[in-house]
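Database export, one record per block. Field names are fixed; values are copied verbatim from the stored entry.
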Amino acid sequence: MRLPPGLTYLPQFLSSHEQSLLLRSSLLLFQSPRHTNSHSRRLWKNYLRSLPTPVLGEGFPPENAVEFQQGHFDGVIRGYRELLIREGGWGKDDYENEELGKVMERLYALLPPSTPLPTSTSTSAKPIDPPPNLIAHLLHLSSTGFIKPHVDNKEAFGTTIVGISLGGDRVIRFQPVGEKAKEGETFDVVLEKGSVYIQQEPLRTEYTHEIPAVATVHGRQVGGTQRVSLMLRDRLPE
């Protein structure tokens, strides 16, 4: 698999158990009261009542049990749920789970520290919380959800983007912009579950990236299933 300049791909970075652990915590976080409205909470309660035991099991719930948004504020994403993870933003059980904390520390360590490093005045931050040098963001795509070609805001983030893939495989497509667009090469990279990709320069600003709902790579159809990605971005230097 050919990779574009500035992309590092780490397959099977998380074990199956670690994937299940992080996926379950992420899905439960999406259903927390502070990230839902009355309609989405009603859908979730009805789903749990239909189960033999009213708790979330392994994998994804059916899509009619959650509320996906059909339009992003900038028009880039369709069929999605998203949230920012702030200090203290994980679930109570997550903070008591040392194994999950260790997983998150490994993932946070993939980003370089900002220069100078932002400082935190908090004395209550835990290993599972995002450190002050990065922004953590969860994105849940439905089976038909997709992300259109775009370049992340250059004035809002630093030079590194880390994506952790949970659930169904998807293709991420990179295409050059500007003067390179006419003769530059398009790269399709299959993001397998449990993998990590690290996007840096020149990829960060000289290529668009997108995630189609379904794509064909070497005769294989990829996509058409739910996917959660944990996105980590470094902050701009202060």
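Remark 1: The chain has a mean pLDDT of 90.
Remark 2: The chain has five helices and eleven strands.
End of record.
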